Amino acid sequence: MTNGWVDIKNTDVMLIMGGNPAENHPCGFKWVVEAKKVRNAKLIVVDPRFQRTASQADHFCQIRAGSDIAFLGGLMNYAIQNNRYAKEYVINYTNAALIVKKGFKLPEDGYFSGFDAAGSKYDVSSWNYEEGGNVTGTAAAAIAAGDGPATAETAAQASSGNAAAKTAGPHGAEGQGLQGMGPASAKGISGGAAAPSLPPNTAYDLSLEHPRCVFQLMKKHFSRYTPDMVSSITGIPVDKLNKAWDMYTIIRDKGDTKKVGTIIYSVGWTQHTFGSQIIRTAAMTQLLLGNVGRAGGGVNALRGHSNIQGATDLAGVFDILPGYLKVPTPADTDFATYLKRITPTPSKPKEWDSFNYWSNTPKFAVSLLKALYGDAAKKENDWAFHYLPKIDRKYSWVEQWDAMYAGKIKGLICFGMNGVAIGPNSEKNIDALKKAEWLVVCDIYPEETSSFWESPGITDDEKKQIKTEVYRLPGAGFAEKDGTFVNSARWLQWKWAAVPTPGDSKLDQEILSRIYLAVRALYQKEGGKFPDALLNATWAYTNPNNPSLTEVAKEINGKALADLHDEKQTPSDWKAGQQLPGFAWLKDDGTTSSGNWLYCGSWPDAGSNTQRRDPADPSGLGIHPNWGWSWPMNRRVMYNRASCNLEGKPWDPSRKQVWFNEATGKWAGNDVPDFKPDSNPKDHMGPFIMNPEGVARFFVPLAGMADGPFPEHYEPVESPLVNPLHPKQTNSPVVKRYKSDMDKYGTSDKFPYPCTTYRLTEHYHYWTKNNPMNMQLVPEPFVEISEELAKKLSITGGDRLKVSTARSGTKDGKEYGVYYARAMVTKRIKPLKLAGKDDPVYPVGIPIHWAYRGIGDGRPEDRRNGANVLSPTVIDPNAYTPEFKGFLVNIEKA
Amino acid sequence: MSNGNLEIRAISGHTGGTPGGGEYRQPDGSTHAGASRDYDVCKLIDTTTCIGCKACEVACVEWNGYEFRETTFDNTYQTMPETAWNFWNLIKFNEHQRADGTIQWLMRKDQCMHCEEPGCLIACPADGAIVQYTNGIVDFNQANCIGCQYCVTGCPFNIPKFNEATKKVYKCTLCSDRVGAGLEPACIKSCPTGCLHFGSKEDMKFEAAKRVKQLHDNGHADAGIYNPGDPDERTSADGIKSTSPGSIGGTHVIYVLNDAKHPENYGGLPPAPSVPFFVKMWKGPLKWLGGIGLVAGVFGVFMHYIRFGPKEVDKVEEVKR
User: Fold this and answer.
1) CA–CA separation, A373 vs A367, rounded Å?
2) Pairing of strands A261-265, A121-122
């Protein structure tokens, strides 16, 4: 969340979409209720089903799963057409005014400029700003000169004009077209040269009229998202669309800048092949309306586990290091090359200022290496940079299972997750595990992954063929562990163990430490390929076999390794060995260490801020400054400089977060200013300090997004629809389809029902099927279908259904990849009227919580596949998240 | 009953004064009138902010120490069709389609309403099996229950449930054990959205009226309070006046409903609940007539014995109810 849970109470209107907080975050949902009751805030819910959150909505739209970009694109088009956007904010706090290079093309035909059909990827060199300063007032001349964005035709004309370009279709045309764009981009195509970079002095037009300024491009882009078009994609009737868009954008009616709207989402957005782009569309919506940085505003991701935010902050993804530093690649031949690649330089209008906070990357990186390798990290050895693994390919979740299925990965250690139940395409994961040599699972239950060899349909003979050696480790439950949870609001809150671990079970840190120490001892004894990283890792814990998490948390915060002195800070001195009070103290000379720069400040020398429990909230804005601690530096609302106008005064005096104090020349506030403290507003420093532009991005330049600098609606890989925006390119052209014999993708002639998966309040992932109380509340899985589909298929509620996909089949006379559950026939899902379809489309939904281990798992009727046996192996090219939320199934009575 | 500071207002099997005399014994041995909760308590359920999360269901079962019971899928999110002897708190889920085609998913927490004029207590013939405390809580004391189930008949909300094994009837106690110790009921404590409130009846009626006004201001013209038979007409949006025959006189569990004109849409909430006429009669004129009948009956039996002698009883197998 850019904001936080409690902050929701400050809002005037909420758009909840791609998430179901009343169901999955019921405790946090209290703040939605609070906003409704105290501020009369309006709630708009857009979801494939009328679910528990919808039961609280002032307006509900049933959307077809996976058409969210169309809905939001339509919303932005509505806001622009009706002049309901935050002009001062958009001009000054976003890149709306920046001019994009000639040759950039919008995806009217489904492709942005630079598509390389052979590699199924984009050359991004045309996705950049133009160099050149203030061009305000030149728009008329530019239009007269035809100086707009490229089109498919102009791009083709710019190419050599040979027959190949004409017959190759848009792919070839654009690939060729780029050659006309100057030396930098030509080099980009030929490869081998340095990657294109952002210009230091961008061209800009404060009137927002230049045909190639970001605002005009965006306006043109979303002008295609008309109510009729959006309705035909989403299935939402035009009147309901208009009502939703009106309810949300009314906060900027007639130039009002006081009101605020929030967008709240969860994995209903993330888990699509264009999930990152849906979230970007939401961010753009919020920027257009000037809602980011403001109390009651923001882009708010609800995290689905109590500590998934912490897992991400601490490098739970293969391509990031703690604190979102990038993992090195083989091209980073030394530390300087690596730092040059990952440390941005400002790119902005010359007259504006940019804090460019990532310019501190070297300090964060050196401090991390010092935390990891201690004295072994020295200036002479590039701070042990070469101990870090370098990623030569994508090691994402789905890729790893695919590699194991291909026999390339021989073993797997699973902690805190259930790989078979998670899927996607669980049968493929089960078959992958059959090929592995060993599997280690640490859990508190005997779950599906460590029981893959007894999944439904496996015969005793088959079991004998499975050679995988399976180890189960006795893990500890959440109430048995101490440490911090980092919630959706980025708050680090220490929790104390409620009960000791039962029986032989062990804390995670003990299990991991003992594995590490045993492996290290083997390397010490026997040597091996490049043991340096393992042998030199710091492990200075009081009990090396079972480190206290207090020590680990202090290590993550970081400390001074030498006496430090800084005149500009108060206090100005820290002695070697003292805990550091914040990341402003981190150095790139080896005198500081920090396991995660973002957490520096969580455990200063005075003691843990994560253990603070003062509920006081002097401002009444839900800031609670002395309760726990949030990164970065206890800021509760990120980018809160944007809560003020250009002069540094709050847009809404009744919700004062931060402000510029003319007398002191410094920023002050109820919240901690997320800004350079002494930057005078007249210097025009952008509030979005993590971007080299200083401003937020409607247009993401260069390699920021793999699938386009603007979000475009593409269909899920399995979709009932031909994309009405560009029928020749229904899916995102950069989404990869997997090629194994287990990876098949269905079409709507055989699998007519768009299916989405979700969680229920009564259950939690794949755990609670072991708990009687939860099983009492909802005893068994079901498939939600509309009354109309039930009538069509002669199904009554409670009937047993068979759900199948393109991945289902029979092998040796036994079926696989099918899902059985009872029908829940409901009014809460309706058939949809969609583009190009005479007949309605019948969406269905399946909760994910059951599989083949749990209460009653000895009973034949409980030995069932999990819902993710149905989901396809296909991922978002940016975040690598599988498409759990939109795929095609067939349903029949079992 | 060990319910802390609670003071009894009415008790089953009695028509006259109540035992306990309204005196509360202090730790030092002195007594004073009244209890620590000397006002009418009330639970307010704002159904417009209930998300059906069932935390109250779980809290109720756990606080009262009941075991897991197996349930079956029934084409609904509702845990079971109705409350049970060991499951006193049930969210009722109802899908309702309005005339304009839009959907409402109505969720209502069903439990004992703790009526001001409790039909269960009126119907109960057993001495001390049902009590009403001065704070309005209606509580069952299973030690005195004779299993006749007249309370089931007397309840307009289908709440008391019979346990075949113990031959006793059970229902929500409004956590009289917690309230007597100065705590809120377990369901209130567990509610994440704050749709459940607990306090004095006066305060809850005030809160409810405030919320209803907000709903009216936001275009929900049919929103209202469900507190049937309450003498305070502002908060009794039903056809039953407190003076109507069979009126339950208001309840100590009140609802805010989005559509108070159709409470039946909320899982069968009766639009005009009343104590059945014959139950009322049973404790009123019928009781007196019954007394005459009883004397006449005993006289008849005596005359029969004199005339025909003792009856030879056939061996009859006991039939399990």
Assistant:
1) 10
2) unpaired
Cis ω for the linkage preceding A632 (within 30 of 0): yes
Q: Tokens 């005893």 appear where? A: A779
Q: Closest partner residue to A761 among B49, B54, B74, by Cβ?
A: B54
Mutate to test the interface with A, among B45, B71, B73 (most CBs of A within 10 A): B73
> What gap in Å lies between CA B144 and CA B1, rounded to an integer?
11
Q: Do A777 and B194 touch (CB under 8 A)?
A: no
Which residues on A lie below 8 Å from B83 (Cβ)?
A: none
Closest residue, chain A, to B216 (C-alpha): A40
Residue B194: CA count within 13 A, CB half-sphere:
14
A177 — phi, psi (to 5°)? -55, -30
How far is it, in rounded angstroms, from Cα A280 to Cα A299?
A: 9
Cis peptide before A840 (omega within 30 of 0): no
Closest CA to A783 of A847, A863, A840, A720: A847
How far apart CA A594 and CA B304 sit, in angstroms, is 99
CB atoms B192 and A29 under 8 Å: yes
CB nearest A779 (choices: B53, B72, B103):
B72
Class of the domain covering A753-893: mainly beta
- Predicted model pTM: 0.92
Q: Is the pLDDT of residue A406 over 50?
A: yes
Which residue has better confidence, B318 or A21?
A21
Distances in Å between the alpha carbon of B237 and those of B29, B40, B202, B226?
A: 46, 20, 16, 6
Contacting A with CB below 8 Å, chain B residues are 48-49, 51-55, 57-58, 61-62, 68-77, 79, 95, 97, 102-107, 192-195, 211, 214, 217-218
Whether residue A877 contacts residue A792, with contact meaning beta carbons closer than 8 Å, is answered with no
Q: Say what the pLDDT of residue A188 is.
A: 34
Per-residue pLDDT at A180 exceeds 80: no
**What CATH fold (topology level) applies to the domain B8-275?**
Alpha-Beta Plaits (3.30.70)
Instruction: Find chain B residues with C-beta within 8 A of A55's C-beta.
Output: 51-52, 104-107
Least confident window among A137-141, A773-777, B49-53: A137-141
Selecting from B52, B76, B79 the residue whose C-beta is nearest the C-beta of A52 gives: B52
Domain ranges of chain A: 6-93+222-304, 99-212, 753-893
Structure tokens at A865: 């596949």
Q: How far apart are CA B59 and CA A270, in angstroms?
A: 33
Of A887, A876, A745, A739, which is closest to residue A394 (Cα–Cα)?
A: A876
ipTM for the predicted complex comes to 0.91
Residues in chain B within 8 Å Cβ distance of A825? 75
What average pLDDT score do residues A151-180 get? 43
Counting residues of chain A whose pLDDT is more than 90, the rounded percentage is: 89
Amino acid at position A494, single letter: W
- Give me the residue label for tokens 């509920």: A615
**What is the share, in percent, of chain A residues with pLDDT greater than 70?**
95
Give me chain A's average pLDDT, please. 93
Q: How far is A858 from chain B (nearest CA, A)?
A: 16
| Domain extents in chain B | 8-275
* Cα dihedral value A739, A744, A749, A754, nearest 10: -110
> Which ranges constitute the DSSP H helices of A334-449?
335-342, 361-373, 397-405, 419-422, 426-435
Architecture of the domain whose range is A6-93+222-304: 3-Layer(aba) Sandwich (3.40)
Nearest by CB: A776 against B53, B71, B107: B71
**Cβ contact, residue pair A777, B57, below 8 Å:** yes
A530-559: burial string, b at 16+ Cβ within 10 Å, e else = eeebeebebeeeeeeeebebeeebbbbbbb
By CA distance, what is B102's nearest residue in A? A60
CB contact under 8 A, B51 and A40: no
Cα(A710)–Cα(A43) distance, integer angstroms: 27
CB contact under 8 A, A773 and B62: yes
